[in-house]
Amino acid sequence: RCELDQMEQQVHSWLREGAATRMVGKTVFNPRSSRSHAVVMLHLCWSQQTSAGSRLKHLPSSSTRETRVYLVDLAGSERAGMHALAPEQLKEGEHINLSLSALGRVVGALASGKCEHVPYRDSALTWLLKDAITGSSARVCMVAAVHPAHPVETASTLRYARQYSALQSTTGSFGSQLSSQVRDLQRRVDSLRHAFEKALAGDEHSIAWTRESLQGSVHCQPKANARQWFDSHPTLTWTPAHQSKAAVRGQRRDRSGIGYITKMEEGDDAGSRVCEVTFEGRHGRPPVVLWYPEVALEMVKPPSTLLEARNLAPDNGRGSF
């Protein structure tokens, strides 16, 4: 940790200290070959003056911002048995190649855009650099060291760098677009959910639907010729209460003309089967329960807009209604 006025001196000191502990050795390919990767992570934090809330605009406030800067020196890949001068160097080269391969798999999986699993945990290197590779505002510059006298190694290095370049062009250009699309979809979902809940509640002129009644409608009203079915029924009688419900049939001025079936009793035929229908009481009065022949009732279907909102709007963000 250091202050701003000491940052340059302190960072140089840390870099020299880290470089002094790094493993290097002479190989066939390089007199000072790196036998390990080096990763330097600088965590920068600073305060930024911002305007306060609307009621306290005259008082300044500050917010803390942060970023991370990674300085990474990757050890070069080595062909087994061609560069090592000792068994220890052969083992070191094996570990170097394994970590570089893991980094290549991570970059390749992200650059393809079709991966379901990104193998960050395959090596310590990829786990340390996870934020630098996939951060929403990450910026990366790779410098590849090549040598014209070694065309095979040069071509391999350039292919590796090109794969990393594909990652930047694929994810960086679409990141902001995807974020915008997600926000737009979320606003649409919230709007649909609000409209659906409002439609479920209904108003003084419409039915208050439920999710259960939308699955299979149980709301009904007397048919226009309901009385004639009472005249031919052996047990049921047409009453003033039945007449009041028939008088408001088709008029959505209040909910009292629409009932829902609460019980059904079987009969010998369709004309003799009867249903218990409960109507909502007017002006806070108790519900009215009446019996009807099944053939004297017609079902009331939910509005098509309500069914559409049920199919499109998710339930609390966890799935469809």
TrEMBL record:
Superkingdom field: Eukaryota
BP-aspect Gene Ontology terms: microtubule-based movement
Keywords, in A-Z order: ATP-binding, Microtubule, Motor protein, Nucleotide-binding
InterPro entries the UniProt entry points to: Kinesin-like_fam, Kinesin_motor_CS, Kinesin_motor_dom, Kinesin_motor_dom_sf, P-loop_NTPase
SUPFAM superfamilies per the UniProt record, alphabetical: P-loop containing nucleoside triphosphate hydrolases (SSF52540)
Domain Kinesin motor: 1-167
One Pfam family cited in the UniProt record for this chain: Kinesin
One GO term describing the cellular component: kinesin complex
A GO molecular function held by the record: ATP hydrolysis activity
Protein family according to the UniProt entry: Belongs to the TRAFAC class myosin-kinesin ATPase superfamily. Kinesin family.
Listed PANTHER family: KINESIN-RELATED
Protein name (record): Kinesin-like protein
Gene source species: Effrenium voratum
